[in-house]
Amino acid sequence: MLAELDRAVAQVRGERSVIRLGYAWAALGAQTTPVLRDWNRRHESTPIRLVRVNLRDAGLVDGLVDLAVVRHPIDRADLDSEVVGVEPRFVVLPVDHPLADDDSVGLADLVADVVGVDRRAGTTTPELWTAAGLAAPRMTETGDVEEWLDLIAAGDAVGVTAEATAHHYPRPGVVFVRLRDAPPIEVRLAWHRRYRHPAAGRIARAIRAAYEGGGSAPTTAA
Length: 222
Hints:
Blueprint (H helix, E strand, L loop, with lengths): L1 H12 L5 E5 L8 H11 L5 E5 L14 E4 L8 E9 L1 E6 L9 E2 L8 E5 L8 H4 L7 E5 L2 H9 L5 E4 H6 L5 E6 L5 E8 L7 H14 L9
Parallel strand pairs: 1-2, 1-3, 6-10, 7-8
Antiparallel strand pairs: 3-11, 4-11, 5-9, 5-10
């Protein structure tokens, strides 16, 4: 309610009304900068500002953001979303891992490894393996994407993530390799049902157009 009031007052005063776009990790990957620059150039009075909130809903429920980029199905009655993109999964490996120089990696190749997962906002679960008829690897929880990458760079785990992470978090000591036999991840734009931002539809279309237009190949090593 306060956010709606702030927007109304800003419009009356002719001020810029910032649209807070939440994300837990990776934002829109390779599409992040093109989407932001194009939108902000075309809509100077309502620019988008990214807000990183390491929660599954990226801050929507607490009113910290107006809209959010999420990579999970929405499982709350008070939230809604639409798919704006699809990303393949990548494996994140320490640079000295035996698979680090491979062009692609399979789920079976990771069964003997320890897989790091973000306990709050991650997309990797044991079901990724069991759905493929494989034994799930041992998993260890991390607090956020930075801690997760540090764990992998130290050689204490491997990770599985969306392609966007390779663009958003290039990191010395890790290598991103395509995961060839796992389902892709849907990227969603989400909002609160009762307080849907009036620009939600236009922003969803802009993001979808960016994904459909493609982007540069992810960095495979850093």
